[in-house]
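Ops channel
N.P.: pipeline sanity check, posting one input/output pair.
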């Protein structure tokens, strides 16, 4: 028995999802998982160096994950997907059980509709200080901008948005305090550590011209990801005292705690909320809402 999955998007998200879903669902469903990646790039993982792309291609071939390049999904129906090539040829893939949307970032209409200067893709132009030149009180970072002093760089990747945050915070403070001539320049790094989970306890990685697909690569990726996510645990961000438990900010986690169970119960009572957060960070595009890793496709 086969389960057929189509993944729209051939970047890092699409690659990881293809390999991890296959591994996970084969274990849980006890079925063969047929996965096809459809992406607009000329090849999967085009943003990576040639050595890493070669490793990606080898790994996908070993897992029998197929890819359709230079194409985009234009229609999703019940048990089928229609995709279009750059030559405007359309093809229909039948028998599709699941479709996963993992496309890259797209611009929002807000900058253009607000009269701000944008590039041909709708991304807002900013200068080296992440500031809109004509409107010095407007700043931007991450996936919504195009830095004028760079040609299609940096790519729309979360690592650049994260590193731009402190620069914007510093520049906003300088503007508010009347030091507009002391703005900090954002200098994006030319290369960063790339790690792609393969779903089988390994990770494909690359930096400084080196490429690997190893167990220790996955251990490193898992450690880095958890370290980053730990920064956003509620008890690291706020102060709450409940049931004799003081939850402090920064790296001090729990003080005056009676026991671990009471601490966990107090944390849940203090930070249990129902909310919908719409964000335009690295994994989003115009058709999606990001819910902490889950993506909801807006119905047209």
């Amino acid at each position: 028995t086969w389960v057929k999955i189509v993944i729209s998007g051939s970047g890092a998200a699409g690659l990881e999802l293809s390999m991890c879903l296959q591994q996970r669902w084969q274990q849980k469903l006890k079925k063969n998982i047929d996965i096809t990646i459809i992406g607009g790039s000329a090849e999967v993982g085009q943003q990576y160096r040639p050595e890493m792309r070669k490793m990606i291609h080898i790994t996908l071939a070993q897992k029998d994950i197929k890819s359709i390049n230079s194409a985009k999904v234009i229609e999703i129906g019940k048990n089928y997907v229609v995709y279009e090539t750059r030559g405007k040829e359309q093809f229909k893939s039948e028998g599709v059980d699941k479709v996963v949307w993992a496309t890259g970032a797209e611009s929002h209409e807000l900058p253009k509709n607000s009269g701000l200067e944008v590039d041909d893709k709708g991304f807002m132009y900013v200068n080296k200080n992440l500031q809109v030149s004509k409107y010095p009180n407007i700043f931007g970072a991450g996936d919504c901008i195009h830095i004028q002093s760079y040609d299609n760089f940096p790519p729309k990747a979360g690592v650049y948005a994260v590193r731009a945050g402190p620069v914007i915070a510093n520049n906003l403070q300088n503007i508010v305090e009347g030091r507009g001539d002391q703005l900090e320049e954002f200098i994006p790094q030319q290369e960063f550590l790339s790690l792609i989970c393969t779903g089988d306890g390994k990770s494909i990685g690359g930096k400084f011209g080196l490429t690997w697909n190893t167990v220790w690569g996955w251990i490193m990726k898992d450690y880095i990801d958890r370290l980053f996510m730990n920064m956003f645990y509620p008890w690291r961000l706020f102060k709450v005292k409940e049931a004799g438990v003081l939850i402090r900010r920064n790296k001090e986690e729990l003080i005056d705690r009676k026991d671990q169970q009471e601490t966990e119960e107090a944390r849940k009572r203090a930070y249990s909320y129902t909310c919908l957060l719409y964000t335009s960070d690295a994994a989003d595009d115009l058709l999606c809402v990001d819910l902490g890793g889950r993506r909801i496709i807006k119905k047209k």
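N.P.: looks fine end to end. Residues 288 and 297 are 5 Å apart (CA to CA).
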